[in-house]
């Protein structure tokens, strides 16, 4: 029987989600022989921020807080002396740090010159020279560094070794180290022969990322190791990396890790991080106290946290937080010690006493902390925040009364313990004596504290006298100062430095005089209009008196107006002045001015303008929010809806402030979005308001909830109108498209934009400004986001929006952003079937291919380009077009160029999978060596489910209908990774499907069948079918795979041993209406039972005959199912008596007669039918049944209809031979001219041994005891034909035996 194995052509699609990336690190091991010694001075040179003297004093004071009231006055004096010494030391350290920083800044660092020397065979990289005066071209440097990066990864031309850890090393380039790190430059400048460095105290996972940073300035950050990164970066003197690490850490601070990061930042001396942590702890201390980590800190760390809490402004909140924190810590400490005491029954009384003594000492510390009086006057720079002694005792009494009841119960238990433990009582008496002495000392300390208070009162009285004298001098100075300043005001724009200095001095000295303050603010406002004067005012300390004037005279409109104007003029285009105003708390008075004069348009306008100018600084944005400065801007816009200036400047201010994420949220909470929308609607002809309003909505919309709010407030429509109303204004077109881009990230907003006809103006903007890169980029990006909605995809096509995207890609081939957003837009649009066709018609496939080719090193473009081709290739004509435009090769290159990029590997496999559905493309992919990188991808990412799925899917498609590809996959060892994928992801339905499908198509090759068995590939297929009984795709591909694999004798046996027959039968039973599964299942059973008796028996035992019969009955018009079903039944009857009987009982003979009659022109079915009758007629009762059902006539008809088909003639003669073993049947065959057809077949195919053998057997049976048959055989020259057969096949024993028997039978007669 011919091999009936088949293969499939898969064309279905899947949209599985991307899994998170997983990277494998392969570490090489080497032995290190030396240990490095570090210079401690070098570690201290690169501190990111030096500590100020004031903060240092506070820290030192907090470290030496009074530990208990029992300490003597001498100890306090010693602590004060130590404070002074530490302050002096810290001041010296700060000076040294400043000197080191100045030295670093003064040195002119530039890249070393890099050049190449051409040689006959290869280009060699020469050594780098030491710091030339002029820097190289930045583009050349970036290109060379990227080359070095590749060589570093491949360890090519490395001339420097860094030994790390215990047994590892890193190979790199000395030239890069010298040019990028001052540490290496100084080290090698002195000794250029050094080519190695030993860092045994650092592991390779710490050192390698930092060395890699020297090549490309990219750094993979791990929060758990940041202190090690920080130390090594300081060692290598990498200031930029230190700043980057601090920034990364600061962005990941939360309630759970802030305490750990805080103490680590102190240990590595990072003032920046410690300040951030302090601020975070102050703002979130309530949540931090609830953290379990609080119970793990020691008493010193507890004091540090309390010192941070002290800096909060609210007195009551501060006290409550300290009480709560210390109580929580004390409870946990007490619980831990109780557990320690109770855990061992044999702890003696002395140990218990020691532990209790230790607990008492800690209780003294905690009680001192909880007693608010511990915040002494000396350690607190703000005496006003301290409670009086009466208030302290009131708070303590209230809380002590609550604890007294519990203490009484504990005292009773303690008395019982004291009676039993006499030794402990004696020791307690001694302790009591010591406590009495301490109490005496405490009384002495109280007396001295009273003396200190008296001295303080005297100092305060002296200050009051000084203040009185100062006010008297000011009164005398007022007339003179007033005249001078009035003269200066008249010529304010022409004043010199001395005049300004005198004005500032008068403002400082005459701070209570309104007229002087007003004129002074006016003069400084005018003076600050010039750029140089802004700097001069700051240097002359002129900013602070302006701020004081605004604060001191909150009801004077002129001072508020002039003051805000002065501050606004001072900060415009001057970054240092912005910072200075924040440091001097100058933002708050501006906010107060706006709040205090809500009806004064000038103050509202200039106040908002001042906040706008100040807010162009990241820290100032935050400060404005914290000072509640956003609300007055919103109120100003609301209060003056007809004032264009306020509307303009208010929207612009919110635009800048909204750059900060928290500010975006704050604006929404304060209902600040609506007034912006109203401003755009109210002034449709004001280009400035339209631009600033759209810009504000753009920044605000970067927050997801804000996007929704803008839609609810009907804020999308005015943006669309702005784009429509000002078609020639490039700025509005740009900002409008960008705003819609951001808003359209939300799904409902995408629908809203379409309903408001917002797609068309974006398309027009792209068309109207073909040379404006920004508009092209933002427009393509907007269409990209909008196209995430299916109806929008259709709308974009109807509005001819695909063509401008293609033009943008073509017009700016060197603009990476446009290439990326354009390709991504086409990717999204191409999900729609008609859009795929439109893109091809508009020649949109070629620019995508060019983008991939033009930016081979841009991972984003490679990924998006391949993904776009994947979507577009889901169309037969597009697949042909991609091949014609040479679009297959760049996909293969992308996969090869980025072997470690999981996304590119995944999407590249998917793109080639779609493209390979076309047979010509399958050939092209093989010619371009495209099969090998896919197999590599599957091997390189064994844990990535997406790559395993798409890789197996590609191999499934590429192997379909292409014999050479099947062979190529085997030669490239591509079968094994498919099997591994199926085994590694037994629960992933997609991988099981594509893996089984790949093996199904690959197995349609004899050598591949054997290879699959050797690699144990049959078992995972059987498991897949069993594990997913309800998945039609897996049942289909699994049965198909077993069908093709079973076309090998050893494989048939292996399938039975692995219990692979039963799941095929179950698949046929479970999916009676699925034609594909019925076809593949019956086909598999047909091949498995072919000439294998044990498999035939196994089939009968598993009731496998009935589902085949059902399949034939359920799909009477499906020729394929009829063919394989009948073929399976045919094979089951071969030399198997029990199956033959079972078939008769199940009325299979009638079924076959029906099938043969339904497909009279199908030679395969006719051939199988004859074979079936041949096998069934081996049974006596079956022979009779065949005659009764007119089966003899049907066999003779088949032989007569296909005289040129040797197989049919062979099986037909065989059927008549077996049927003729019955007297009535012999007569029936003669009557139906069956003898004539047998002799004719032998005559027509004299060289066919099977036909001759079966013809002789048939004539032998027909001539048995039947004179009429003998007569007919003789008349038709049957004896001569038999004699010829005997002569032609002398080596065939059956022909010789049967032929001679016939001749003897006729000779006797």
UniProtKB/TrEMBL annotation:
This is Protein aardvark. Residues 1-63 have a biased composition (Basic and acidic residues). Pfam families: ARM_LRRK2, BTB. ARM repeats lie at residues 541-578, 671-715, 757-801, 800-844, 843-887, 886-930, 973-1017, 1016-1060, 1103-1140, 1147-1191, 1190-1234, 1233-1277. Residues 1-102 are annotated as: Disordered. Residues 158-223 form the BTB domain. The keyword Coiled coil applies. Keywords: Coiled coil, Repeat.
């Amino acid at each position: 029987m011919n091999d009936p194995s088949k293969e499939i052509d898969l064309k279905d699609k899947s949209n599985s989600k991307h899994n998170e990336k997983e990277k494998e690190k392969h570490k090489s091991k080497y032995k290190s022989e030396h240990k490095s010694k570090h210079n401690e001075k070098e570690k201290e040179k690169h501190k990111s921020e030096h500590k100020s003297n004031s903060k240092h004093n506070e820290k030192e004071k907090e470290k030496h807080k009074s530990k208990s009231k029992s300490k003597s006055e001498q100890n306090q004096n010693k602590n004060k002396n130590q404070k002074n010494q530490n302050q002096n030391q810290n001041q010296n350290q700060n000076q040294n740090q400043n000197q080191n920083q100045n030295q670093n800044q003064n040195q002119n660092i530039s890249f070393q010159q890099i050049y190449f020397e051409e040689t006959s065979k290869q280009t060699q990289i020469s050594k780098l020279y030491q710091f030339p005066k002029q820097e190289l071209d930045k583009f050349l440097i970036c290109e060379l560094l990227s080359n070095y990066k590749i060589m570093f990864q491949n360890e090519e031309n490395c001339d420097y070794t860094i030994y790390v850890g215990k047994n590892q090393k890193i190979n790199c380039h000395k030239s890069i180290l010298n040019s990028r790190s001052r540490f290496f430059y100084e080290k090698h400048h002195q000794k250029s022969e050094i080519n190695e460095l030993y860092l045994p105290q650092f592991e390779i996972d710490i050192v390698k990322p930092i060395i890699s940073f020297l090549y490309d300035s990219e750094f993979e950050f791990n929060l758990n190791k940041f202190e090690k990164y920080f130390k090594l970066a300081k060692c290598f003197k990498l200031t930029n990396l230190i700043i980057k690490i601090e920034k990364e850490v600061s962005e990941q601070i939360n309630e759970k890790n802030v305490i750990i990061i805080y103490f680590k930042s102190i240990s590595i001396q990072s003032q920046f991080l410690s300040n951030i942590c302090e601020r975070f702890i102050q703002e979130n201390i309530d949540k931090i106290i609830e953290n379990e980590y609080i119970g793990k800190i020691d008493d010193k760390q507890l004091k540090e946290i309390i010192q941070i809490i002290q800096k909060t402004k609210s007195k009551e909140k501060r006290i409550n937080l300290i009480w709560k924190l210390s109580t929580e810590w004390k409870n946990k400490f007490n619980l831990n010690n109780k557990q320690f005491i109770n855990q061992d029954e044999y702890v003696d009384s002395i140990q218990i006493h020691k532990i209790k003594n230790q607990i008492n000492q800690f209780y003294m510390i905690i009680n001192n902390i909880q007693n608010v009086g511990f915040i002494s006057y000396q350690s607190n720079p703000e005496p006003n925040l301290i409670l009086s002694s009466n208030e302290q005792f009131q708070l303590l009494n209230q809380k002590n009364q609550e604890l007294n009841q519990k203490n009484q119960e504990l005292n009773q238990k303690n008395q019982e313990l004291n009676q039993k433990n006499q030794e402990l009582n004696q020791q307690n008496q001694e302790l009591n004596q010591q406590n009495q002495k301490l109490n005496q000392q405490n009384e002495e300390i109280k007396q001295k504290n009273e003396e200190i208070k008296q001295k303080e009162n005297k100092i305060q009285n002296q200050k009051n006298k000084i203040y009185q004298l100062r006010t008297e001098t000011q009164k005398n100075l007022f007339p003179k100062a007033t005249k001078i300043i009035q003269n200066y005001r008249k010529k304010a724009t022409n004043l010199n430095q001395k005049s300004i200095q005198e004005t500032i001095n008068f403002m400082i000295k005459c701070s209570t005089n309104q007229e002087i303050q007003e004129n002074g603010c006016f003069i400084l406002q005018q003076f600050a209009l010039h750029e140089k004067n802004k700097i001069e005012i700051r240097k002359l300390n002129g900013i602070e008196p302006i701020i004081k004037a605004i604060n001191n005279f909150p009801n004077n409109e002129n001072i508020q107006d002039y003051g805000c104007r002065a501050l606004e003029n001072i900060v415009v285009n001057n970054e240092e002045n912005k910072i200075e105003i924040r440091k001097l708390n100058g933002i708050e008075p501006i906010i107060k001015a706006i709040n205090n004069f809500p009806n004064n348009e000038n103050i509202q306008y200039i106040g908002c303008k001042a906040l706008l100018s100040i807010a162009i600084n990241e820290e100032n944005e935050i400060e404005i929010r914290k000072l509640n400065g956003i609300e007055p801007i919103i109120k100003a816009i609301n209060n003056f809806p007809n004032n264009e200036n306020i509307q303009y400047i208010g929207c612009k201010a919110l635009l800048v402030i909204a750059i900060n994420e928290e500010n975006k949220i704050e604006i929404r909470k304060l209902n600040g979005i609506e007034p912006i929308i109203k401003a755009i609607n109210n002034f449709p002809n004001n280009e400035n308001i339209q631009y600033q309003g759209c810009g504000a909505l753009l920044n605000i919309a970067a927050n997801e909830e804000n996007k929704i709010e803008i839609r609810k407030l009907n804020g999308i429509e005015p943006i669309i109108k702005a784009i429509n109303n000002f078609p020639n204004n490039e700025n509005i077109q740009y900002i409008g498209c960008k705003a819609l881009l951001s808003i359209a990230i939300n799904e409902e907003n995408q629908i809203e934009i379409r309903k408001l006809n917002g797609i068309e103006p974006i398309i027009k903007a792209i068309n109207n400004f073909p040379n404006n890169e920004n508009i092209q980029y933002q427009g393509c990006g907007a269409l990209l986001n909008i196209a995430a909605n299916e109806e929008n995809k259709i709308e974009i096509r109807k509005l001819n929006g695909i063509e401008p995207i293609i033009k943008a890609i073509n017009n700016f081939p060197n603009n990476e952003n446009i290439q990326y957003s354009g390709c991504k837009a086409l990717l999204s649009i191409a999900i729609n079937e008609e859009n795929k066709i439109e893109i091809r018609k508009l020649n949109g496939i070629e620019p995508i291919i060019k983008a991939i080719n033009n930016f081979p090193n841009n991972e984003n473009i490679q990924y998006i380009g391949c993904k776009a081709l994947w979507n577009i290739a889901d169309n037969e004509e597009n697949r042909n077009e991609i091949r014609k435009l040479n679009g297959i090769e760049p996909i293969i290159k992308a996969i090869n160029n980025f072997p470690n990029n999981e996304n590119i590997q995944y999407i590249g496999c998917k793109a080639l999978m779609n493209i390979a559905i076309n047979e010509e493309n399958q050939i092209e992919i093989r010619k371009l060596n495209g099969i090998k990188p896919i197999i590599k991808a599957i091997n390189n990412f064994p844990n990535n489910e997406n790559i395993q799925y798409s890789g197996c899917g590609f191999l499934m498609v590429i192997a379909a209908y292409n014999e050479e590809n099947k062979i190529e996959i085997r030669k490239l060892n591509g079968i094994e990774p498919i099997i591994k994928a199926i085994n590694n992801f037994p629960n992933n339905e997609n991988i099981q499907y594509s893996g089984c499908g790949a093996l199904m198509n690959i197995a349609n090759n004899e050598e591949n069948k054997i290879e699959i068995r050797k690699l144990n590939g049959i078992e995972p297929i059987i498991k897949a079918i069993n594990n997913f009984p309800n998945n039609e795709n897996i049942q289909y591909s699994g049965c198909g795979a077993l069908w093709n694999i079973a076309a090998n004798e050893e494989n048939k046996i292996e399938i039975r041993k692995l219990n692979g027959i039963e799941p095929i039968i179950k698949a046929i039973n479970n999916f009676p209406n699925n034609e594909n599964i019925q076809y593949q299942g019956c086909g598999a059973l047909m091949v498995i039972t072919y000439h294998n008796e044990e498999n035939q028996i196994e089939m009968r035992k598993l009731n496998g005959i009935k589902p085949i019969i059902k399949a034939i009955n359920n799909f009477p018009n499906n020729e394929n199912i009829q063919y394989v079903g009948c073929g399976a039944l045919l094979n089951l009857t071969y030399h198997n008596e029990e199956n033959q009987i079972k078939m008769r009982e199940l009325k299979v003979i009638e079924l076959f007669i029906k099938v043969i009659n339904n497909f009279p022109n199908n030679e395969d079915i006719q051939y199988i039918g004859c074979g079936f009758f041949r096998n069934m007629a081996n049974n006596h009762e079956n022979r009779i049944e065949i005659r009764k059902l007119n089966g003899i006539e049907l066999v003779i008809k088949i032989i007569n209809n296909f005289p040129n088909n040797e197989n049919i003639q062979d099986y037909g003669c065989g059927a008549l031979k077996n049927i003729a073993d019955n007297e009535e049947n012999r007569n029936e065959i003669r009557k139906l001219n069956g003898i004539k057809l047998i002799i004719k077949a032998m005559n027509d195919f004299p060289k066919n041994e099977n036909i001759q053998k079966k013809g002789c057997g048939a004539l032998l049976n027909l001539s048995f005891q039947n004179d009429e048959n003998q007569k007919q055989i003789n008349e038709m020259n049957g004896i001569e034909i038999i004699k010829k057969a005997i002569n032609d096949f002398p080596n065939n024993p059956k022909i010789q035996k049967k032929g001679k028997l016939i001749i003897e039978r006729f000779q006797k007669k």
